[in-house]
Design goal:
This protein is of the alpha+beta class. It contains four helices and eight strands; from the N terminus they run βαββββαββαβα. The N and C termini lie far apart (49 Å).
């Protein structure tokens, strides 16, 4: 059974900031739509306050989280200890998509490594914080950070990334609208 917490306190913050990977889950309102679960890494997560977090949304082959956030905002972030004491932390909340043209983008983007190519920032108003034992999570030792995503984005360049996003990120696999700026007006 999980233990709820009133906020992201110093202990929970230290735990989640020490994890190299986290998982993001979203779903459309339509019960026949696809639930999405994505792993994230690359130093892309920040705690903004006791009830607010954000992460970099890198260019990818799908845009499910963006589409679901735009449609209903529901999101869960999960952090698992793969080393040390077993523990799982879940943050449930409401997601907001912040795209490069949005007024808040520059301020949020400044909190992260400038070298990473991103299509948006997902900001989450955290409504529920809980932790649980994580006894069933296996132990894994990190070997290193993968560079393929960053290398791929660098090879594509700004124009190539824009074309890619226009082709792959305008809508979800269920046809929901995703990135606004990639759709010609």
């Amino acid at each position: 059974m999980s233990t709820p917490h009133p906020e992201i306190d110093a202990s929970i913050r230290a735990f989640i900031e020490s994890q190299l990977v986290f998982f993001v889950a979203t779903a459309p309102l339509d019960a026949s739509g696809h639930v999405n679960l994505s792993p994230k890494g690359l130093d892309s997560f920040r705690v903004l306050g006791p009830h607010e977090v954000a992460y970099l949304d890198h260019v990818g082959s799908g845009a499910e989280t963006i589409a679901h956030a735009r449609e209903n905002g529901r999101i869960t972030l999960m952090f698992c200890a793969f080393e040390g004491r077993p523990k799982i932390v879940r943050l449930h909340g409401r997601a907001e998509v912040v795209e490069p043209a949005d007024p808040a983008f520059a301020e949020l983007r400044a909190l992260f490594n400038a070298g990473q190519q991103v299509r948006s920032i997902i900001r989450v108003a955290v409504e529920r914080v809980s932790d649980s034992c994580g006894f069933g999570v296996p132990l894994y030792a990190p070997v290193g950070t993968r560079t393929q995503l960053v290398d791929w984005a660098d090879r594509k360049g700004p124009e190539g990334l824009e074309t890619y996003q226009q082709q792959k990120n305008a809508q979800s696999i269920d046809g929901l609208p995703a990135l606004r700026w990639v759709t010609p007006e």
